[in-house]
Write a structure and sequence with these properties.
Glutaredoxin, alpha/beta, 4 helices
Length: about 160
């Protein structure tokens, strides 16, 4: 009877170990969690706050730094002239300028292209944080910024 009980306990322990491994955190299971996003923005920008919420809902941890002047940040990370928007983010060694959808940022982080980052110039209606009350949107293109500062189309929405 004792040997059966010990065998059952051993089997239960092995079973329990297998269950805990299958419920491991993403890092333990080999999938890295999404990196932290550092967002530089003006304190009073409502559309920037909408984009921050979009990123959080997509699973990113977001830190916000409210600044009065974004130009030094844009210059430091390499946002090309004429491609600026209302906020600049840094994530996983890249910059993200403007209302770029989280799906494009996740793709960037998965593919890891040789580039500085992504830009979505201006503030297109329908982009994350720029949703219209009536649900309307305009087509827009997210661009990849190379190390030379040149841009190429990355995603169309």
């Amino acid at each position: 009877m004792k040997s059966i009980s010990l065998a059952l306990i051993a089997m239960f322990a092995l079973l329990l170990q297998g269950c805990t491994e299958s419920f491991a955190t993403p890092t333990q299971a080999g999938t890295e969690p999404l990196p932290r996003v550092l967002v530089h923005k003006n304190e009073y920008c409502g559309c920037c706050n909408g984009w921050v919420e979009h990123m959080r809902k997509a699973g990113f941890r977001v830190e916000v730094r409210n600044v009065d002047n974004l130009d030094p940040v844009k210059t430091r990370v390499g946002v090309p002239a004429g491609k600026g928007s209302c906020h600049t983010a840094e994530v996983g060694g890249y910059f993200v300028e403007g209302h770029v959808p989280a799906i494009d940022i996740k793709r960037l982080l998965a593919e890891r292209p040789e580039a500085k980052g992504l830009v979505l110039p201006a503030m297109p209606v329908g982009s994350p944080g720029m949703e219209a009350p009536d649900g309307s949107s305009e087509p827009y293109t997210v661009e990849l910024v190379g190390h030379d500062g040149k841009t190429t189309p990355y995603a169309s929405h």
